Amino acid sequence: MIDIPLSERLGSLRPPGLPAVPSMEHLSRSIRRVMDRYDPPVTQPEHDAERLLAEMRRRIASDDWRKVPMSFVTRAAGLAFSTPFRTRADLAPVRQFLLAEVAASTRTGFLGPMVRVYLESFTAGADHSRALGVALARARDRIGPRWQAVLAALPDLFDPDTAPASIAARMDGMDDPWHGLRAIGLRHPHAPGLMDAAHLAFLARIAPRLDRRDQIDRLLGWLRPDGQTLRTVGAGAAISALLRPWVQRPPPSDIVTLLIDRLTQIYGHPRVGRHAAWNEVNPGLEAMFLRWLTGEDIRLLFRILTEVERGHMWAEREAFWLTLHEQGRIGEAWIAFNDAGYRAALAKLPEDARQGARRFGRQVGDPDKSLLIMRISDRIVIEGTYNFKVHAFDANQPKAPKLHQPRYDVAEIRRIPSALWKQVHLGDWQSQVMRRL
Fold first, then answer.
1. 264 vs 272: CA distance, rounded Å
2. Is the dihedral of CA 356, 361, 364, 367 positive or negative?
3. Tell me, what's the pLDDT at 308?
4. Which of 338, 345, 340 has its CA nearest to residue 408?
5. CA-CA distance, 111 to 75, in Å (whole number)?
């Protein structure tokens, strides 16, 4: 064995390489999850607001602050500047006292909550927002470090004339506005007040670009961030902004599917468990969305039938009903799947939209039958699979089947005595149906 000197051994060693820079994405996601879970919005409803405000007035009049916690003062501030109370003349001394305290105080435990009061009570052009903004702007150097980070990102936060537009501009530069705002210190991006105004300003900024998939995705993510509650205030304006680009030109099929899937996931079907947001949408835009839904539902029915009813040809029925839809003859449509079809259709919805889904119903009376229920003029027309005849009913008759029901029984439908007509699928059945419609 050759004895190699230690100096030669050491000289032949390779210098150690620097370790790879670890990815911070996993750590960032973990931090985000923890903050999302343990930093919920402050919600402390006051059960006796009048009593609390009366006590605050008494304390101010007597200048007696013994054993008064700071939380009492900040709760009173939240009420005094809130919608029911901020214009009441008898509470003017409370508001004046709080504004004077903002001007003089060095306690971050008071100034920080007053920033939150300003944000959540914000109303564009309102006197109370202007007064709070002026007072806080003068006290900005005394506000605690948490809000200093926000002020560094949004220097005009306390200017009620420009703050909504400034926040909207920052949002417009973010791929994910909800988490982006949290990253700069606005921990509750869907909070009321200033963020409601910023939401509307954001919609105005991005409206001209909402014919692009990336912008649509970004707005949908803002309306319902993953694992978070949805935005309700200004939701109707957001839905309208998403639909308005397609009034003069038809959207691509992938955009139609995206908007139908996500809007019904977030705000529900306009005709089933109607969310209040749809009440704020222009009726013409809602009607356009319902037409999209009708076409999508007809295609969904026959796509599912092709999957679960192999060996049966549905092409001629699909072509016929889609033609009527394209002619504007079908006002609304609703599907009731058999068990196999229901499971297959449910699997096609986004995973987090499957629980409690109301995009379609179930047909429970015959395991082989799925139904397409349509409103055509003043008729309820029902198409069914296999040997189910096309049935037509007067929509105004009490016993006529209704759209958007969770459950249908094909045997019950067949027994309804008031059917106007029934058409079997033989020969030129399409002409017979058209003649009768």
1. 10
2. negative
3. 81
4. 338
5. 13
| Residue 125 in tokens | 């052009």
Q: Which residues of 312-324 are buried (b: 16+ CB within 10 A; e: fewer)?
A: eeeeebbebbbeb
* Domain limits, the chain: 53-152, 162-281, 287-436
Instruction: Give the Cα separation of 430 and 433 in Å (integer).
Output: 5
Which amino acid is it at 314? W
Would you call 9 helix, strand, or coil by DSSP?
Answer: helix
**Inter-axis angle of helices 194-206 and 235-243, nearest 10:** 0
Integer Cα distance of 114 and 100 in angstroms = 12
Run of H or E residues at 298: helix 283-308
Tell me whether strands 361-363 and 407-408 are parallel, antiparallel or unpaired: parallel
Q: What is the pLDDT of residue 386?
A: 85
Q: Provide DSSP, 84-127.
A: TTTT-GGGHHHHHHHHHHHHH---HHHHHHHHHHHHHH--TT-H
Joined together, the tokens standing for residue 351 give: 């995973």
Q: How far apart are the first and last CA of the chain?
A: 103
CB of 128 within 8 A of CB of 95? yes
Give the helix/strand (H/E) hosting 389: none
Residue 176, CA distances (Å) to 23, 130, 347, 376 in order = 20, 30, 27, 42
Residue recorded with tokens 């909800």 = 178
Structure confidence at residue 25 (pLDDT): 61
pLDDT along the chain (437 residues), means of 10: 64 63 60 55 72 96 94 95 94 97 95 97 96 97 94 97 98 96 95 97 98 97 91 97 96 95 92 92 96 92 82 80 94 93 85 66 91 96 92 95 95 94 94 94
Q: Using an 8 Å Cβ cutoff, are 358 and 268 in contact?
A: yes
